[in-house]
């Protein structure tokens, strides 16, 4: 699915790639949607578990950079499986099973909450850091997704280490600016 898209991948292709007969696949999963939802959930759970390890790894000011580097380090030469599938499903805009959308949203919510915690640590010393972190987490995710897609398209053109440092600096600057009474 990550290579051919959701619509372009049938159970026969999944059967061939996995070495399991289609009947075995249907024994465990009600449909291709159910299988995709399970794959997404498992991949997201692994990624979230890895990110949760970062929470205590560094001083609060360094934690955001460490968190982002660790999250983006998982990219390697390709986007993590669940991000590739998420983008494919979003672009295909087909009538996908509610279970897929629900599992994707749950993973996104968890990732946003973990990022907000890392941001709150990076905003140490700023009034109302927790609120600002929650408000800026979606922006940070959108920026990171754009960088990940850019890295997918041009791996040599995106310096992930530099991006994580600049993102941490930029988000703190936005938070400090908002505390000063002005929204950027």
Task: Explain what you see.
The protein has a single domain, classed as Tetracycline Repressor, domain 2. It has 184 residues and is mainly alpha-helical. Helix 3 (32-52) crosses helix 5 (81-92). The protein is elongated and about 60 Å long. Helix content is 72%, strand content 0%.
Task: Briefly say what this structure is.
By secondary structure, the chain is mainly α.
Q: Indicate the proportion of strand residues.
A: under 5%
- What fraction, in percent, of the residue positions are helical? over 70%
The CATH topology turns out to be Tetracycline Repressor, domain 2
**Whole-number radius of gyration?**
19 Å
Number of domains: 1
Output the structural class.
mainly alpha
The total beta strand count reads: 0
CATH architecture: Orthogonal Bundle
Provide the CATH top-level class: Mainly Alpha
| Number of separate helices | 8
**Main beta sheet strand tally, sense and closure:** none
Distance between the termini: 40 Å
**What shape does the CA trace take?**
elongated
Name the poorly predicted regions: none
Mean pLDDT: 77
Q: Look at the structure and name the CATH superfamily.
A: Tetracycline Repressor, domain 2
Order of secondary-structure elements: HHHHHHHH
Structural topology:
Layout: H1 11-18, H2 22-28, H3 32-52, H4 60-73, H5 81-92, H6 98-122, H7 129-153, H8 160-179
Helix pairs in contact: 3-5, 3-6, 4-6, 4-8, 6-7, 7-8
């Amino acid at each position: 699915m990550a290579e051919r898209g959701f619509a372009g991948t049938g159970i026969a292709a999944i059967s061939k790639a996995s070495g399991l007969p289609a009947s075995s696949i249907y024994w465990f999963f009600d449909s291709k949607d159910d299988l995709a939802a399970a794959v997404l959930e498992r991949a997201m759970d692994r990624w979230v578990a890895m990110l949760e390890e970062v929470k205590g790894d560094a001083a609060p000011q360094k934690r955001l950079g460490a968190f982002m580097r660790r999250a983006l380090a998982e990219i390697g030469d390709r986007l993590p499986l669940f991000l590739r599938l998420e983008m494919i499903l979003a672009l295909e805009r087909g009538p996908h099973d509610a279970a897929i959308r629900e599992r994707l949203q749950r993973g996104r919510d968890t990732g946003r909450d973990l990022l907000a915690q890392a941001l709150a640590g990076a905003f140490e010393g700023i009034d109302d850091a927790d609120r600002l972190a929650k408000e800026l987490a979606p922006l940070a995710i959108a920026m990171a997704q754009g960088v990940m897609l850019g890295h997918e398209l041009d791996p040599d053109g995106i310096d992930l280490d530099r991006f994580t440092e600049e993102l941490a600096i930029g988000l703190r600057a936005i938070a400090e600016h908002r505390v000063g009474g002005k929204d950027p």
